[in-house]
Design a protein that fits this description.
The protein is an alpha+beta fold. It is 36% helix and 14% strand. The radius of gyration is 19 Å and the shape is globular.
Length: 213
């Protein structure tokens, strides 16, 4: 079910052909922060779609997703559906393109995989459209992200104590396991499907980003 207003673009038009040729595939990203938990360069937002995610616009979009403000649950979030994907333009060299899917898959989509060292690139991915959905994904996963950061700080403290005795204690092992677990939970809770487009079409980005929220 499509939860956002879109502008249909027939595939036989010039714009439709452009989008099809630039399309790299679908894959999940974690939006609890803006660098996919340190696995990619920081996202750039609102360059092409400059609409500010206001409280009113976010509330309206959440209502369309069946948001219950009392339980903070959504009845039709749709974050794994291609028609609700966030549109991102990226340097294709940063991605393992084999991790993306170009068409609908019955088993669902996997996470987009970045090549080693991609996080150090100065070539930043850009959100062409979907900034409101990005903010909502962050809100959904904020508590889990805070737990992950807390677990990381705890691990650092325990490791500092271990350095004093030059050994790895049981507490460090347990703290490390908790850090890994909390990272996985944070990543899952804030995930949203992304439609990736090759930045080689950057001059046509405003056409590729023809979506409304």
């Amino acid at each position: 079910m499509c939860l956002i207003q879109t502008i249909p673009i027939p595939e036989e038009t010039a714009i439709g052909k452009l989008k099809r040729s630039a399309f790299l595939g679908f894959g999940f990203l974690s939006f609890c922060d803006d660098n996919n938990l340190g696995m990619m360069p920081t996202l750039v937002v609102q360059t092409y779609n400059t609409r500010e995610p206001t409280a009113a616009s976010l509330k309206a979009l959440k209502m369309g997703m069946g948001h219950n403000p009392w339980t903070n649950q959504f009845s039709r979030l749709g974050r794994g559906e291609p028609e609700n994907a966030i549109t991102v333009m990226i340097n294709s060299q940063l991605l393992d393109l084999g991790s993306l899917e170009k068409s609908a898959v019955a088993s669902g989509y996997g996470y987009a995989v970045f090549k080693r060292g991609a996080e150090n690139s100065s070539d930043h991915p850009e959100v062409l459209n979907g900034n409101h959905r990005r903010v909502i994904a962050q809100e959904i996963g904020c508590k889990q992200y805070e737990a992950y950061l807390k677990a990381g700080k705890h691990l650092e403290n325990v490791m500092d104590l271990d350095k004093e005795v030059s050994s790895r204690s049981k507490k460090t092992t347990e703290a490390s396991e908790e850090h890994v677990k909390s990272r996985s939970v944070a990543r899952m809770s804030s995930r949203w499907l992304v439609a990736f487009y090759d930045e080689g079409e950057r001059s046509n980005a405003s056409w590729i980003s023809l979506r409304q929220t």
